[in-house]
Amino acid sequence: MKASTAQRLVRLYPLRWQLRYGDEFAALLEDHALSFATVVDVVVAACAAYFRVFDIHLSSPRTRGVVLWTAWMMALAGGVSLFETVDDSELARMTQQQPWPHFAWVGLEIGAAIAGAAIALSTAVVLWSMLLEAGSSRRGEIFARLVVPACMGLLLVGWVGAVLFATRGRWGASPWAVAVQRPDFPSTVVRWLTGFVTMLLAVSTEIVGTMRVASALRDSSLQVVRLRVGRFGIAMDPLRIGTATIPVLASGTLVMFACVVAWGFSAGIRTAAFDARTGAMGLTALTSWLMSVILIGVPAALMIQVSLHTTDTPRLS
After folding, report:
1. Which end of the chain has fewer CB within 10 Å, C or N?
2. Of the ranges 52-66, 92-106, 168-182, which one carries the lowest mean pLDDT score?
3. DSSP state, 6?
4. Which residue, 226, 178, 227, is CA-closest to 199?
5. Among 157, 108, 114, which residue's Cα sits nearest to residue 289?
6. Which residues share a beta bridge with 236?
7. What number of CA atoms fall less than 13 Å from residue 141's CA on the CB side?
C-alpha cells in the first residue's frame, strides 16, 4: 500500500505506541496490499492497544470510580433520551401492544433498576464520606465542587417550572416535543427557543456535574464511614463498597444495552413510527434510538472493562 495510507493507519494507534513502533509498523504495512481485511485487522489491533493503555490507568480505585461515574451518566442520558422519545408517541402504543417490544422494554427497565440501585448505593456511601471529610478537615473546595451540579440542577428545574407557569401548564419546554404539533402547545418559535434552552441547560448540567463530581472524587481520601445504630456499629469502606457494586452496575448496564437494541429491531426500525420527529430537537425517533444505543453501549463496554480489572472484595466491619 502507499506510504501515506500506511501512515494514516498508524495514526489510529495511541501516541506512545506510534513513537515506539510507528516507523517499523508503517514499513510493514507498505509491504502489504491494501485490502478490507488488512484495514479491519489494523483497526481491531488499534482498539486493543487503546484498551491496554486504559488498563494501566485502571489500577487506581479512584480512576475506576471516575470512569464508572462518567459512564453511568452517559448511560443515564441515553436512557432518558429514549424514554422521552417514545413517551406519548406511536412507539409507546406499539410497545404496549406487541409482545417482543414490550418484553424488551420491561428488560430495559429491569436493567436500569439494577444499575441504578448499584450506583445509588456506592454513590451514597462515597458522597457521605466526601461530605464528612469536607466538614472535618474544613475542605471547602470539596463542598464547592459538589454544590455546583446541585445548583445547576435546580436552575434546570426552575427554568422548566417557569415555562410551565408562563404557559399555564400547557408546555414544559421539552426538547423532545418541539416538532410535535398540538392545539394546546405554544407557537413553533416558542417551542424551539424554550426547548433549546432546556437542552442547553440539561447538557451543561450533565457535563459540568460529571466533571465536578469526578474532580471531587479524585481529590478526596474517601475515609471509612462509621455508622452506629444502638449497640451495633458498621464501618463502611467507600472504595470496597464501590468495588462490590461494579459487577452489578456493569451487568445492569449491559442488560440495558441488549434490551435497547432488541427493542429497536423488534419494534421495526424501518416502520413509519421511527420516522416521527419525537427525538431531541426534532430528530427522528430512529436517530434518537441510534444515539441511545451508542450512549448506553459505550458505557457498558467501559464498565465491563473496569469489572474485569476489579479483584478486591468488599468487607463490612
Report:
1. C
2. 52-66
3. H
4. 178
5. 108
6. 225
7. 6
| Cell numbers placing 215 | 474532580
Query: In DSSP terms, which residues pair with 226 in a beta bridge?
Result: 235
CA 200, distance to chain mean position in Å, is 17
> One-letter amino acid identity for 192?
W
CB 307 within 8 Å of CB 250: yes
**Do residues 34 and 1 make contact, with C-beta atoms less than 8 angstroms apart?**
yes
Q: Do residues 62 and 215 lie in contact, with contact meaning Cβ atoms separated by under 8 Å?
A: no
Cβ neighbours around 184 below 10 Å, total:
9
Q: Distances in Å between the alpha carbon of 137 and those of 131, 141, 158, 187? A: 10, 11, 33, 53
Flag whether pLDDT at 154 surpasses 60. Answer: yes
- Sign of the dihedral through C-alpha 24, 26, 30, 36: positive
Asked if residue 286 has pLDDT above 80, the reply is yes
Q: How far, in Å, CA of 58 to CA of 128, rounded?
A: 24
> In which region does residue 168 sit, left (phi positive, over 0), alpha (psi from -120 to 50) or beta (all else)?
left
- Biggest alpha carbon–alpha carbon distance for the chain: 75
Give bridge partners of residue 234 from the DSSP assignment: 227
